[in-house]
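Table S2 (text version). Query chain:
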Amino acid sequence: MNPFGLRIAVPRGVMMGPTLDALDRVGVDTREVRENDRKLLFEDVGIVTMRPSDVATYVESGAADVGVTGKDVLMEYSRDVVELADLGYGPCRMVLASIAGDPDPGEEALRRLGVMRVATKYVTIATRYLESTGRQAEIVEVKGSVELAPLTGLVDAIVDLTATGTTLRENGLVIREEIATSTARLIANPATHRLKAADVDRLREALVAG
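Corresponding structure-token output:
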């Protein structure tokens, strides 16, 4: 059952559970989604599941009417979607981190007017941030465990998303600067936002109130 008549893109991973809980509270029956871990499309209840980074792409294209993804995704990827609400859960921080005990690479780069080497999965966010603080940086894009990059001498620092900082600490890294905070956001396709405004608004109001 989906009382809103909208196809909803739900992120897999750490945000999936809280998102399904939120949908349950507003009357969307998510039992089938919870019971079928490998299935991706649930037509009967209007839910499609995917990686958080893909949610905005599906919503932008109209393959989903609305979706839930992290603010970090919206900051990193330029997508034509309408951000409807901050849902408040899934808090994370985008940070600049480096090896504990080493000089702060950001301060060193400014002092020496040198170029920082920074590894990240979030190239757009890292580039904009470092440019805004007046530092020259060479951005090294990595897809896997970004914490490895400074430990092997590949880079001076990393820009990454962290919820608790535990993985950073376990790898001997410390947070030097906080760049931004990220929580789950409800987004909509622009055309859906116009053509199905009443349904979209009902869902947004229910989720925010719930």
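Notes on Table S2: The two ends are 18 Å apart (CA to CA). Residues 88 and 183 are 6 Å apart (CA to CA).
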